[in-house]
Amino acid sequence: MGYLITAGLLVIVAIICFIISNLKIKEYGGEYYNLKPWRWIAVAVLGILGLVTLGMSITTVSARSVGIQTAFGRYQNTLSNGLQFTAPWSSVEEFSTQVQYLDLDGDQAVPVTFEGGGGGQVNVTPRWRIDPAGAEDLWKKYKTFDAVKDKLVNSSAKDAVRIVTSKYTPNEARSGENLRAVAEGIEAQLAADLKDDGIIIDSISVKGISLDARSQASLDKIVSANNDIERAKAEQERARIDAETAKIREQGGSLKPEALARYCLEVVNNWDVGRNGPLPAGFTCTSGNGAPFVVTNK
């Protein structure tokens, strides 16, 4: 539009100059003014128009980019990188085809809801690029490269993260062995979502998954309960080994009945039924004279 206005004004000026150069104006003394120099002004104006036209017909498309040539708001052509000649009234919008990084972390982290309830945030970095063959359709839909990044890739990436992480419980999602599976799932989902739009997903990097306060508290309880169970199993196994060791020593004569009974009582006194469960079946203590002690699970 700017070129057409400029060109129109210069043409009008040139025409006026030619008209003036052909006029004959007589002055009071009977002599005519010499107006022919106006022709040279008209020629100079046309020369300026030619230079403006040439300058606005040359454009350069950056390396690893394609140019979308448009005129009057309509698509004209897709230009490769390098020096290009176009109609002076057209414009070119560059679409980069190199790999782009979309950092969805910090304030931009993706809020998610896990399977079975609970929420958190995923810090992820998608790496993507534009397929040159799809640049025309992208321009028709979004007009600018920034709109492609913000309105298409950004929103699609967040949707893919939510879809994939919703299949995991909070504990599973944060497990180190599952982080690669989560990243691969997001990459596959996002690639499928953007395939028809001419967007190629290069890779996905999951930097970390954080839980909200409620989910973290629930996970801490589960971990604590699992630790208690493992500890109880270990103590039960220790008690079983101690009991068998005592029997072996008794059979070998290394422990007198009185010492064996005292050792047994030490085990019973240190036993926590609430944490370790009841004593193993058949576990008894006897006094030095062979009379059994009464053992209660408290």
Kindly describe this structure.
This protein is α+β, with helices and mostly antiparallel strands and 298 residues long. It is built from nine helices and nine strands. Strands 6, 7, 8 and 9 form a four-stranded antiparallel β-sheet that branches. α4 crosses α6.
List keywords for this structure.
298 residues; alpha+beta; Tetrahydropterin Synthase, Chain A
For the record, the CATH architecture of the largest domain stands as: 2-Layer Sandwich
Q: How does the major sheet shape up?
A: 4 strands, antiparallel
Which value, in Å, is the CA radius of gyration?
A: 43 Å
| Tally of individual helices | 9
Give the CATH level 1 class of the largest domain: Alpha Beta
| Net shape | rod-shaped
Q: What integer is the average pLDDT?
A: 81
* Tally of distinct domains: 3
Unreliably modeled segments: none
Computed structural class: alpha+beta
Structure summary, number of beta strands: 9
Strand content: 15-25%
Span from first to last CA? 93 Å
What is the third-level CATH name, the topology of the largest domain?
A: Tetrahydropterin Synthase, Chain A
Tell me the series of helices and strands, N- to C-terminal: HHEEEEEEEEHHHHEHHH
As a percent range, the share of helical residues equals 40-55%
CATH homologous superfamily label of the largest domain: Band 7 domain
